[in-house]
Amino acid sequence: MRSATALRSLQLSRSTPLQLLRSLGSGPRGLVESEAEKRLLRYGENVLPTRRVPSLPIIFLRSLRDPFTAVLASLALVSALVAAWATAAVIAVLVVVSCALRAAGEHRADRSAAGLRQLVASTATVLRRASDDAAPVAREVPVDQVVPGDVVRLMPGDLVPADLRLLRATGLTMHQAALTGETAPVAKYPVDEPSPPPATAESPAAAPDHDTGPGPVDDFDRPELCFQGSSVAAGSGTGVVIATGAGTRFAAADQLPGNDRRTTAFDRSVYGISWILIRFMLLTPPLVLMANAALRGRGIETLPFAVAVAVGLTPEMLPVIVTTTLARGASALARTHQVIVKRLPALHDLGAVDVVCLDKTGTLTQDRPVLECALGADGAPDDSVLHWAAVNSLWTVQLAEVPSADALDEAILDAAEHRLPEGADALEYDPVTALPFDPVRRLSTAVIRTPRRLGHHTLVVKGATESVMERCALGDEERRRVTALADRMAAEGLRVLAVARAERPAVTRPYAPSDEHGLTFTGLVGLRDATADTAADALAALRHRGIAVKVLTGDHPGTAARACRDLGLAPGEVVTASSTDALSDAELGEIADSSTVFARCSPEHKARIVRVLRERGHVTGFLGDGVNDLPALRACDVGICPPDAVDVARETADVVLAAKDLTSLDHAVMAGRGSGSAIAGYLRITLSSNLGNVIAMLTAGLLLPFLPMLPSQVLVQNLCFDAAQLAFAYARPRAGALRHPLKLRPREVLASVTGFGVLNAAADLATFAVLAWAVSDARAETAFHAGWFTENLLTQALVMVLLRTGRGGGVPVTAGVLALTGLLLPLSPLGPLLGMAALPFAYYPLLVLVLTLYAGSLFWLTRRPGRRDTV
């Protein structure tokens, strides 16, 4: 919902200029200084609402909301209630370490992103008076001192300091990319009676010289309004401020529909896995208590063991491993590729992304056009058409006092310099005057002295095809032929400009638009968007990595399709977003799955397309940089923006790239897959081992007359395994793990873990049989504890080596240390203190046999044909 200030500014903007000035208590001469000071106190400084970077303690407390962290905290509390103080202390330390690591990483990323903030403008030129009778003086004031009613002057390159209603303008065109996403300059001019936003041009050929047609973005299309966040491309103007600060459209964009943050792929995966484990942990202690009470007559004294079993099922190190892995990946990205990951789980989401949605402008294409062709009226290439188009561009800029050429003129002049035989020298004529581009005429005219014809002038006209043809002496057949040629060029995604000339006797009076008649049609020039230098290679890399690219743009369908073809991205059938309004989400989802390009997209269209893709099971990333991208940035799994994005987009995005370049995105995706692979490997190894131990514990608890393992032994075993698991956070992923998007699917994780867990339990049960044969009754309990403790750590060491998904990181060395601990601890002086006795020598050869069979089965399961990693 718009703020009251924004609604008031909209109402003011729809009055006539005189009514507007009166309602604002202002006038063409600007405000009196004393009145400006009063308004500054009344309305406040002209600054955008800023989002404070959360403090470290706040981020730490937010980390506790993680479902798995909450599970661990609950287990710590239950352990404390049953007086298992050591277990409670260890779990509490793990929770604190995990939350501290996550909070430190996210706080550092927030501060880095906040350092990228830039002011919309530093100063503005306003008309102020010392008193009511004093003459107005143009002066520079800080942007935050601009108030409603101020009269602001705009010159080329100026950033618009607030929302303005134009009072005067000369050849004024604005860049509104930060607001609408479209880089083509938009013509702005004052009007006496505001009218509804103009209809969108459906063909680039119909667009005026300096405008390719507005996009579908309500008030941004109105020619008399200039908005904060836009900048002057060419020309000059004067406007009155109608809204400042939080009342501007730029600030109000944060309240657009769809700006609510959704749960991401990482959230869904963690919640799914956490709830599976929670169900097991809630079920396990009651089962242990009831089974021991029914079969062994043991009651409440088995509660610590039941809690220890639940703890044994829990991958206590998961929060630490996840946070450490993601923090290391984010730190490496920032250090080597200057990519800032603001929200650590977003790095995992990048690794799981299988669809990337992005805008065409500035990402696939540069913010400038280039000349594609110059054709005569017959459709054949003709350099003379380029010659006369460049003459118009050069002398319009020089004679009409336009401070700089706009993007289309620059493209024509650059092409003339490189393509014409004499380069820029071919454009040197004796100039007379120029009639600059006018959004009503939609053309511009340069007048030069005709070479070698004394007393004659040549009018060179360039502009929108229809406007130029209206002023040419063309027969019906020739007019139809030129129109068809322009339409074909437009269908190929080109911006089309027509060129015409007329040679007339020189006149002494000033030239006027009425002289633009009876012209001779010269030809057409076609311009296309220059593709980004690295875009083609980056798109190919994304496709190779199994990521589909969807182009969501407000541009013309033909223009978007042309850019995609130039980059080797097959556009297929381009979908006009407005045509999807009548479709259900299910129908749109099917179209979105199979289509590549969506044109004429509004912010709401972009957000809806992203949302339906997510509902179809895709993990989506969205790359955007403007206010119009905010809903989609928040609807996707991971929001991405370049460093020069507007402030609100940078604050909303999860990842800030090093440059407006898809190569940086590719680096981020690879880092995400590496981190995801490490987390997936840890989960598969730890959950498999833990599940096997729990099954064995429950079985042994029912078969043996004593507890199969003391709570203190469970704690020491978990501590040893937990310490060894830290190596997973430093392992490098294998190349195979980086080829495709990596998703943690809870059901598939459970299926994979169950298979390996049952195998682990079988090894434990075989160990029980060996212990029953090798150990005498006199020391059955302490020997059993020692034998199972040793076998547990040895099997866990094997699992670490055989199921690991990465290389390096010290995993084999750590596994070796874990195995030695399992062998030597029962034999050390600590063994008796933990209730373990030395084992007979006969046990060890049989243990080697059990471990060999276990390792062989494990190796076969991981290498068997047709097996697919599920995590």
Q: Which radius of gyration do the C-alpha atoms yield?
A: 36 Å
CATH architecture of the largest domain: Up-down Bundle
- Assign an overall shape: elongated
Give the uncertain stretches in residue-range form: 115-121, 197-217, 256-260, 866-871
Helical content class: 40-55%
Largest sheet: 8 strands, mixed
Query: What oligomeric state is this?
Result: single chain
Overall number of strands: 24
Number of domains: 4
What does this structure look like?
The strands form 4 sheets. Strands 1, 2, 3, 4, 5, 6, 7 and 8 form an 8-stranded mixed sheet that branches. The protein has an 8-stranded mixed sheet with strand order 9-22-21-20-10-17-19-18, sandwiched between helices. A 6-stranded antiparallel sheet has the order 11-16-15-14-13-12, sandwiched between helices. The longest helix has 42 residues, at 662-703. The protein folds into 4 domains: 4-44 and 122-158 and 163-243, Calcium-transporting ATPase, cytoplasmic transduction domain A; 278-349 and 667-863, Up-down Bundle (Calcium-transporting ATPase, transmembrane domain), CATH 1.20.1110; 350-365 and 533-662, Rossmann fold; 368-530, 3-Layer(aba) Sandwich (Calcium-transporting ATPase, cytoplasmic domain N). It is built from 29 helices and 24 strands. The chain starts with a helix and ends in an 8-residue tail after the last helix. Helix 5 runs antiparallel to helix 6 (85-114). It is of the alpha/beta class and 871 residues long. The protein is elongated. Strand 18 (575-576), helix 19 (585-594) and strand 19 form a beta-alpha-beta unit. The relative contact order is 0.10.
